[in-house]
Amino acid sequence: MSRTFSFEFFPPKTPEGEDKLRSVRTQLATLNPHFFSVTFGAGGSTREGTWNTVHEIHRAGLPVAPHVSCVGSSRDSIRKLLSGYREAGIRRLVTLRGDAPSGAGIGGGELTYANQLVELVRAETGDWFHIEVAAYPEYHPQSRTPAEDLANFMRKVRAGANSAITQYFYNADAYYRFRDDARALGCTVPIVPGVMPITNFAQLARFSDACGAEIPRWIRNRLASFGDDRTSIRAFGLDVVTSLCENLLANGAPGLHLYTMNMADASLEIWRRLGLPK
User: Fold this and answer.
1) Is 37 in contact with 69 (CB distance < 8 Å)?
2) pLDDT digits (tens, 9 = 90+) for 42-85
3) Would you list the domain boundaries of the chain?
């Protein structure tokens, strides 16, 4: 099975951000990734931005996978979204439960869980879309137990997912354990590690605290010791993440999905250090 390499963007909110993303996209396109994914904000807050960004990337002749979330959405609104992407010729989706807007509980839509969204996509479009789903090697922060989290993941797989992308992590053993436990439950789809380059410690700590991704103590302490020395943070971060990726690929990971934060330099350097083909 060939490995899959991809990059994630978020929809820009300003004209300057749009120009920057075009430059980043152009640079990363030289690596010939399998696709670029585009995120979908909490409660559909970036719905129009996601749609516009996806279509711009698609019009540029590049493979793109929009995130589709079911929280706060009706079945009809999801059907319209799927129809629009299908009419454009887009063939891959990242299907997620999604997050509610800050201060709102999960709910408000006709679908509650990601497996229901996968079922809807399959019912409406058959095999048109390659469906990616999310996986959580350190377990979803809202899961009560690891067993419950794995059961939820397997429901998405059995509903018709083709492959999975993980939340980012820095502990490779967590990924291997999740992968092996999923296989033991009958999972046969590729589970691609999600990788977050380290360029801004404060931002990374904030994201990690929110999503439940652990920054190992030795990494957190080293990053904190650099203070505002962004050059040292970047250099150390590149070493840590490159080593993680080398470990993952050497031990059978079916590719990598890099969370770019709409920046190119770190991803380009990690790619170069890994000696991946262009």
Assistant:
1) no
2) 555 567 899 999 999 999 999 999 999 988 788 999 999 999 99
3) 4-274
Could you tell me the pTM of the whole model? 0.94
Best CA proximity match to 46, nearest among 115, 101, 105, 91: 101
Pick from 100, 96, 27, 97: which is nearest to 62 by CA?
27
| CA nearest to 113, candidates 87, 135, 95 | 95
CA 72, 77, 83, 88 torsion: positive or negative?
negative
Average pLDDT over residues 240-245: 98
Distance CA 276, CA 173 (A): 23
Q: Is it true that domain 4-274 has CATH number 3.30.465.10?
A: no
Q: What is the pLDDT of residues 182-213, one digit of tens each?
A: 999 999 999 999 999 999 999 999 999 888 89
Cα(162)–Cα(210) distance, rounded to whole angstroms?
Answer: 28
Considering the candidates 8, 119, 132, 138, report the single residue annotated as catalytic: 8
Could you give the angle at the alpha carbon of 227 between the alpha carbons of 169 and 207, nearest 5°?
30
CB–CB of 57/26 below 8 Å? no
Q: For the segment 136-160, what is each residue's pLDDT rounded down to a tens digit?
A: 999 887 888 989 999 999 999 999 9
- Placement of tokens 């454009």 in the chain: 88
Q: Active-site residue 8, yes or no?
A: yes
Distances (CA, A) of 265 to 3, 7, 235: 22, 13, 12
